[in-house]
Amino acid sequence: MDDGALLERLRAGDEAAFTELVGRYSGALLRLVRxxxxxxxxxxxVVQETWLGVLSGLDGFEGRSSLRTWLFRIAINRARxxxxxxxxxxxxxxLADREAGEEHPSVAPERFLGPDHDRWPxxxxxxxxxxxxxxDRRLESHETVxxxxxxxxxxxxAQRAVITLRDIEGWESSEVCNTLEISETNQRVLLHRxxxxxxxxxxxxxxx
Length: 208
Fold this sequence. Notes:
63% helix, Arc Repressor Mutant, subunit A, single chain, 0% strand, mainly alpha, Rna Polymerase Sigma Factor, Chain: A, 2 domains
């Protein structure tokens, strides 16, 4: 069922629709909220508050954004408020601007040929490994998935949020920008850097 049909059922007071909404988005909400608050326990409380906010705000939802975007904005706003009480926080947009503007290269410079190379200046010296060639198919293993999630967890907050929504939850870039209130340019830079760091971690893992 798409979000539009789900919204109609929610407004009609369908409890099964609300159960479906909770099942569909609770995990993603928890992952996103955790970036704003100091502990998993606090994140769980914020998600519960979000669901209460959804129930009380359904009649006022005008549909100018998708149901999912509206839901995640409620969660982010509550997480920001809770985070500011639990610890000193920095606005997400400021984090995104800072991380997108960092000078650190996404890929180590020594992996590229120098500008004075006679045939392939600036091309790969050590290209990325093709993971599908791994003979034991570790790419498809549970262990590899856990390694990816662990690598994402170590990313700076803005990169972690963007790659979580884009590559784990499968969101479109426009929805990520609207939900996190960041520019398309910053979203693209943050996603590139996050993917590069996760890929570098996986290359180390496969090399081991």
